[in-house]
């Protein structure tokens, strides 16, 4: 084979002969071009011997005004409030719940828009999609470009977003967020094909160019990110460490156990947490606590309120640096009557809450008599609260870890001592070998080591048993598993319900 190749005329020579024969170039012109290129190569080779590269040359864009990785490693940057003016929120709320006169939308959608408008008017019961729209709208008015892509993102896979409206008679389109105010930034929302690897890769590249754009990609179901795992592993989780490529890319992953099939139940929280790079065995110093977000490779949140989701999105833009955000959004909480927020929680000096502790409003017994303090994240919180209420339990406190990475070590330390005699429990709806347990267990232990009353205590797990499959897919089995871990979390043992009232077990 090598002898046969040696006998071939090189492709360049063949091409030169063709160009000369057809009269496109003269031989002298080609020789001159060859000499010029060769001299460029020789000159730069000579320079390379004394050349010292700088980190800036690795960056896709220099991002003027933003802190470099080197500066982030030495400075402590202040956090900024992410609330917006209430008048602005009301204006945007009215805009995203209305449409032009004569525009004929579907009758079911008309009812949804009317209900959305009422929540804005009454400043209460604001749901997930409305809070998201308020976050997008405020950023647009503040001159920040917002871009969202993914399968069925215009409507929302679970028929909740409705960012693009269709006239039922003319098929004319109306995008409310393109009409929030004069001089607003561009709003781009696009349904994509089932090509997660390609689409997420494109959005990652888009996010590298302009830090003042909120760039989001949403998986139709959380597990759809499987097909983009290469992008996540090699570029989202490790791009800054490997190549100094900073990004504020936001990934929205639907998650939650609702008794449906395995592939649509979980966004594989455990995979993302496994790629987080802090040391779980060392409690951060005060300086390290103040710069956790600067030092982390990416943020992972599983919010339980629309307001916290609102702040998580706006926080992506209102910083002097950028970090990837993986946001798990519960499908159940999109319409859950308890998962509601007010404009008050999104206005003024409000901000994202990394940890939401049990409050006095929950009518517990005295703090000293609380027997169990349950920590959890996401939608399982509401199942626990409803079961606690249904069973008239007043000696169990329930607190929410809203941000799984960077982990809120300081909040766990500060609030665990509020219930000094309580057993510490972690409750999750995922199986033992999945979910957040492997990530939070050593970090909870490290945090409790700093407390007055819980140092050295064991942390009890309450959740599904280990499983090869994400979920059973059988509703009856699913509920039996749920009732089991709820009773174990609240009472300390697995109890079969004596009754089920409104979907809530009575032990």
Automatic annotation (TrEMBL):
GO terms for cellular component: mitochondrion; oxoglutarate dehydrogenase complex. The keyword Oxidoreductase applies. The keyword ATP-binding does not apply. Keywords: Oxidoreductase, Thiamine pyrophosphate. GO terms for biological process: tricarboxylic acid cycle. It comes from the Eukaryota. Its cofactor is thiamine diphosphate. One of its GO terms (molecular function) is thiamine pyrophosphate binding. Residues 126-336 form the Transketolase-like pyrimidine-binding domain. Belongs to the alpha-ketoglutarate dehydrogenase family. This is 2-oxoglutarate dehydrogenase E1 component. It comes from Dissophora globulifera. The gene is KGD1_3.
